[in-house]
User: What shape does this take?
Amino acid sequence: MQKELIDAALHQYALHGYHGATMRKIATEVGIKPASIYFFYKNKEELFIAAFKQLLNNHFRKMESILLENRDKPVEQIFTAMFQGIASHHKGDIEGTNAYISLVTSPIPEITKYLYSHMLRYNEWLADSLESILKNSYPTMLPREIDRVIKQFVLIGNGIFWGIKLYNDEDFEEQVVLASEIIHALFDEINKGLIHEREY
Assistant: This one.
């Protein structure tokens, strides 16, 4: 029942926003009385925190699985696979993506606290993972250069995510391809720099 309530909460949130997604509407979608929800969640905020956790954890698991599946590939292919994963994951669950964007852009205080905690955990995992990949591929790369590449990855990844709402399907696919081309150009430049260093 908790999964059904979370799914209904996200559906109603995507349709009506937080204030419009009433407990009555959620209960009606699930087929129970509104009072029955309180057997599982003490209030509306607790239900939406649970729903938001599900969205964030699903994204986290997707990124972890992509990294695991591609860990033996060249670094630029790993970055490209992660960009494609961001696109496919969020395009494949557009309702969840709409709910996520609504929650992020107009959060309730209780969700803000959890969002900050989750994003800190996710960003630390991402930075550590990408740093490890870069160090394995480029042992002589300086820490400031590693930091710069990671920040560029995050910037491009954020652009892909928000592009889901800004572009139609064809234009969005082009944006994902361009993101991959930018990453390949970045690593081409890094590789040229390393060759130049060896020559001198």
About this structure: Helices lie at 2-20, 23-30, 44-70, 75-92, 94-105, 109-137, 143-166, 169-199. The chain is about 85% helix and 0% strand.
